[in-house]
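Exercise 7. Given the encoded structure of a 281-residue chain, write a plausible sequence.
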């Protein structure tokens, strides 16, 4: 198996896949091989269908997870084994569309207030105030905070693209306070070992603890802060194009999801029921 793991890794590196995508795809391929009980090069459409069907019906995995596994196996067949891939033989599961959970500004600040450790408060505040993915926040360098132009530089984010987001004045003050206490030298938010950034799991646990302490009943996650940034900006009058650039979306259709989460008044919409007719008792 190791020879094909190495071949798969090389193919992904040649394509410029992110390290996180490489780890995910290799994990999927390993599980596929274990499910089949034989070398993946000796498998075909029947084994792929059985594996995906088992993932859906027995393991009850999400459509996003199953499609990720699908992409891994498809890439392996095409880019490592150099085989044709026919979607008629292996259809892709239809992805379920659901709107993300969004907190009100008041709820966000309650969570931040409940985060008492200065370093953790600074990280959560940076994620919310700039709309960052957690991996982007953990990998910030000190030099990425551009206080002269009030922006944050996000290097090699999803899709291997650099971008800028806005730097909040209040968050800048918080970051300066944090820097004076902790004096980071390279990573803005280093882990226990200064040569590595703080772990994503640590920040996720911090958010969950703060959320529980507020008593907010919404099923929010750390990524919810990014959704809140986008929705709250739209409610303040930002355009979809502005938001697309700040979030680093490839397609504006992805950004347009947030239109469903904005206030109707912001969109200039009013129900036809409120136009004309007599008042109802």
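Solution.
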């Amino acid at each position: 198996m190791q020879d094909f793991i190495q071949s798969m890794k090389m193919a992904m590196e040649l394509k410029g896949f992110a390290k996180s995508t490489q780890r995910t795809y290799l994990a999927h391929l390993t599980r596929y091989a274990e499910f089949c009980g034989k070398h993946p090069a000796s498998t075909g459409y029947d084994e792929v269908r059985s594996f995906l069907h088992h993932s859906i019906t027995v393991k009850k995995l999400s459509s996003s997870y199953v499609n990720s596994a699908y992409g891994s196996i498809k890439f392996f067949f095409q880019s490592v084994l150099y085989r044709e891939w026919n979607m008629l033989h292996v259809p892709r599961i239809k992805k379920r569309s659901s709107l993300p959970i969004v907190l009100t500004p008041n709820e966000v600040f309650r969570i931040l207030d409940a985060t008492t450790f200065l370093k953790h408060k600074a990280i959560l505040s940076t994620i919310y105030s700039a709309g960052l993915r957690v991996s982007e926040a953990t990998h910030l360098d000190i030099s990425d905070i551009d206080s002269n132009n009030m922006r944050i530089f996000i290097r090699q984010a999803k899709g291997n693209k650099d971008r800028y987001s806005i730097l909040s004045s209040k968050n800048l003050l918080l970051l300066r306070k944090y820097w004076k206490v902790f004096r980071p030298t390279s990573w803005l938010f280093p882990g226990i070992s200064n040569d590595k950034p703080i772990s994503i799991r640590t920040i996720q646990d911090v958010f969950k603890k703060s959320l529980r302490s507020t008593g907010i009943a919404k099923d929010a996650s750390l990524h919810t802060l990014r959704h809140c940034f986008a929705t709250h900006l739209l409610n303040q009058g930002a355009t979809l194009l502005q938001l697309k650039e700040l979030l680093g979306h490839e397609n504006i259709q992805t950004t347009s999801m947030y239109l469903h989460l904005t206030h109707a008044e912001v969109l200039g919409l009013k129900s036809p029921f409120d136009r004309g007719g007599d008042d109802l008792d």
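Remark. The two ends are 74 Å apart (CA to CA). Students should compare their own answers with the one above.
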